Amino acid sequence: MQRPEPQEFARVLSSMCTEPHPAARAAAERFLATNPGDPGTYGTVADLEREAVDLLGEVTRLPDPTGYVTSGGTEANIQAIRIARNRTRDAVDRPNVVVPDHAHFSFSKAADLLSVELRRAPLDEDYRADLDAMAALVDADTVGVVGVAGSTEYGRVDPIPDLAALAEEADALFHVDAAWGGFALPFTEYAWDFADAAVDTMTIDPHKLGQAAIPAGGLLARSSALFDTLAVDTPYLESTGQVTLTGTRSGAGVASAVAAMRELWADGYRTEYERAQALAEWFADELRERGYDVVDPTLPLVAAALPEATIGTLREAGWRLSKTGSGEARVVVMPHVTRGALTSVLADLDRLG
Ligand code: 0PR
Description:
Elements: H1 22-30, H2 43-60, E1 66-70, H3 73-86, E2 96-100, H4 106-114, E3 117-121, H5 131-137, E4 142-148, H6 160-169, E5 173-177, E6 201-203, E7 217-221, H7 224-228, E8 232-233, E9 241-242, H8 251-264, H9 267-289, E10 294-295, E11 301-304, H10 308-316, E12 322-323, E13 329-332, H11 339-352
Parallel strand pairs: 2-3, 2-4, 4-5, 5-6
Antiparallel strand pairs: 1-7, 6-7, 8-9, 10-11, 11-13, 12-13
The structure holds ligand 0PR.
Residues 15-17, 72-74, 77, 104, 106, 148, 152, 177, 179-180, 205, 217 line the site of ligand 0PR.
EC number: 4.1.1.11
GO molecular function, one term: pyridoxal phosphate binding
Catalytic activity: L-aspartate + H(+) = beta-alanine + CO2
């Protein structure tokens, strides 16, 4: 049977979500009515969630990881900041967390919810975290330091090992937000080891480059003790405690994450990364040849300084195109973004721009 498609991806250029892998879509449907928040009752999906975390551990090279499938990167980032705050609760009255300025707005939500001061450090000229600027904001009340591996606007990767050292010196939790970049990093020069880089917690979202159905984010931690700081008692469930932020959760997200990773880790993700990166570089060159300034794509994301009127014209032509805070057009080369689509964008630019 031909299903109606609620989302047509052909002209979606700026989304960090994509069409789920067919296996992920099928698994999501099968597990729609299951709740991993109640593992005593829904044992099968609870087993799948453990498999999801193990697979995420393979992707990030973290042996024996602890974690769970969140509703998305926002929840994972909120929970990481909550861990940073709770583990120092008795020692620090006015906690702060130091992040590079390009940290996703979910950290602003986390700070607001948790009464933590968020200190945003300016970036270097290459749109990455500036170590000195970060260090200048760290003080005795710093409970967390954040690095971004795949920034939302430019796809940049912060100097993770250096930031880890900074966090360690400050006795602060080191969290890496690889919500989007996580499934590309293993195939790049940024393929550091989660364990070796002294990362404490990490966000990596199957529902972005992992090609799982929404909602499937991921939060991993180096040790289960970190999660203990989040536990609340659950007296009337068969299980006795819960560390997740939400109660009832999506079994569909969990099952689809496992299905996608079983299908695609590692060769499928590598092939897709190589295709998308080559396409991003080609598109960046084409734009440069037309005289536009382009932010070099270090991951498959192209930001180009198109005039505002041109972006408006492309949108009117049906392209779903968003802008960075500085006004550049932002193309995220997700699996649904083809060379054919980007060729048509260029043709429209030549004709209309
Ligand atoms: N961390 C990073 C680095 C992100 O880029 C995002 C989302 C998050 C955390 C938060 O993840 P959730 O949205 O799963 O909670 N980045 C995209 C953005 O803000 C989210 C997005 C996805 C927006 C698809 C639009 C869209 O169609 O641009």
